[in-house]
């Protein structure tokens, strides 16, 4: 029988049309991230700041990993 994890599972959802990504834990939306730093801040505010964002098995990256923020580079290049 599996024991409950120390931290809840966090999902970073696929990018929206504007490049932002929803961050959830279970049915709860923790926030909307536009950059990896936003994910770190969202987790800090949820008292999950001890989670290593880019390497943790507790974070599921859907639609691309922590380096995938499509749509943002077009805005920065102009």
Fold blueprint:
Blueprint: E1 10-12, E2 21-25, E3 28-33, H1 36-45, E4 59-61, H2 72-77
Parallel strand pairs: 1-4
Antiparallel strand pairs: 1-2, 2-3
Question: What would your notes on this structure say?
Answer:
This protein has about 80 residues and is α+β, with helices and mostly antiparallel strands. Helices cover about 20% and strands about 20% of the residues. The chain has helices spanning about 35-45, 70-75; strands at about 10, 20-25, 30-35, 60. Mean pLDDT is about 80; it is low at about 75-78.
Q: What brief labels describe this structure?
A:
78 residues, four-stranded mixed β-sheet, globular, disordered C terminus
């Amino acid at each position: 029988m599996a024991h409950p994890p120390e931290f809840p599972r966090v999902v970073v959802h696929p990018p929206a049309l504007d490049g932002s990504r929803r961050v959830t834990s279970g049915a709860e939306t923790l926030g909307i991230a536009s950059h990896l730093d936003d994910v770190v801040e969202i987790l800090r505010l949820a008292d999950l700041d001890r989670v290593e964002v880019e390497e943790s098995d507790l974070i599921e990256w859907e639609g691309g990993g922590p380096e995938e923020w499509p749509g943002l580079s077009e805005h920065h290049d102009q």
